[in-house]
Amino acid sequence: MNDFDLYSERRAVKQRLEDELADVRFKGEEHVIRQTHPTSLRSRLSAFLNKELEIPVKPAGVLCATLLASAFLLWLPFDELAIRHPSEIQQNNKPRELIHIGGNIYDKSLYERMVNKYEN
C-alpha cells in the first residue's frame, strides 16, 4: 500500500465515523466546566474532597505494624515480666506454694498479687 491508499482509507473511516456520530451531541459541558473550574467555596471544597488518594500498601502495613508493636510494648507491665533472681522469688527460703485453679498451676503469691491488682 502506498501513502495515497492509507490517506484515502483514513478519510473514508473518518467520514463514516462523522456520519454515524452526526446525531450525537454532548450536553454536559456546563457540568464538566463547573467541576473542573469551581467558583464557589462549597464547589472548591467538594472538588478537593473528591480527589483520589493512593496509599502504598507496603509502607502503610509497616507503619501499622510498628504502631501496633509499640503500643503493645508500652502497654505491657514490665515489672511483672522481668526476670527475677531466685532469691527474690523464694523470700525467706520458704518454698513456693503452688495452687491449681481452672486446670492450671500458679504460684500462690503471684496469683494473689494479680487478683488483688485487678480487683482494686
Properties at a glance:
7% strand, 7 helices, mainly alpha, two-stranded antiparallel ribbon, 120 residues
Low-pLDDT runs: none
Strand order of the largest sheet: 1-2
Radius of gyration: 38 Å
Major sheet size, sense and barrel closure: 2 strands, antiparallel
Lay out the secondary structure:
Layout: H1 3-20, H2 29-36, H3 41-49, H4 57-75, H5 78-81, H6 86-89, E1 98-101, E2 104-107, H7 108-119
Antiparallel strand pairs: 1-2
Description of the molecule:
- The chain has 120 residues and is mainly alpha-helical.
- It has a domain at 1-52.
- It has helices at residues 3-20, 29-36, 41-49, 57-75, 78-81, 86-89, 108-119, and strands at residues 98-101, 104-107.
- The chain has a two-stranded antiparallel ribbon.
- A hairpin with a 2-residue loop joins strand 1 and strand 2.
- The longest helix is centred in the middle third of the chain and has 19 residues, at 57-75.
- The radius of gyration is 38 Å and the shape is elongated.
- The termini are far apart.
- The mean pLDDT is 82.
